[in-house]
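anyone seen this seq b4? input:
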Amino acid sequence: MKRKLLLGIGLSVLVGISVLFSCSKDKAAKTTTTSPTAIPDDVLKSITNLGFSTDEVRRQGDGYLVEGDILLTKANLAEASTSPTLRIADVEQYRTTNLVKNLPRTVTVSVTNLPTVYLNAATAAVARYNALNLTLKFQMVSSGGTIDIIGFNEGPSGGYITLGSSGFPTSSGDPYNQIQMNTNEQAYGTNPDLGYVTSVIQHELGHCIGFRHTDYMNRAFSCGGRHVNEGSAGIGAINIPGTPTKADAGSWMLACSSGTDRTFNANDQIALNYLY
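predicted toks r here
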């Protein structure tokens, strides 16, 4: 996720989950990336075929960071996208080809070498999911979790700062195994707000279990700026019965964050219950 904050005179910072790509007027989220021309053409083609935007792709380790906070591994790039997506009205709930399988299931979550606020935030995010009584539950463990939350330190670039990043479930049905949270003080400040950090981890957990950004068809909805379609790859969309027919500004999976504590709204809960 990414966030863009107004710092000083006209300086914006983009954050992790992407602090509301402009969910909030003064904050937007988006991860910085190198120019797409620096990425091999075959990789860009694979990213497009999977239905992701090639706008601002960045190499990260053995994978590629797309859409601000989503890490695609080599295994992801080798897969073909065939599943439909989930849609909620004008702002859609989307899922990836792969979902977590073998339900009911409990997924463990750990926090490694991060300040206490990140541990407390992870615990709170897990509690929010478990309060929905889904067939997929989470459990905090001291170490070695199925999903491990680790830190990185990266300042603003190109007017944005990344708050956190994660990936999608494997083809075998396991959740993505890692969330990276930015410890740079320009991401959360010198005294991070517990609710705010909780909402970012909550968002990244959403990616780990197969959710894409709610404003997938137009990132400008939450991030501001120009209209950016993350790409549909022709895989279609399924409307969830009972959801509204107008834009929904409060989703926990919006591409960018407003810098506030944002949790599940009613439509998010419909989408989660539909899948899990």
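The radius of gyration is 17 Å. The chain has one domain: 2-275. kinda curious what u guys think
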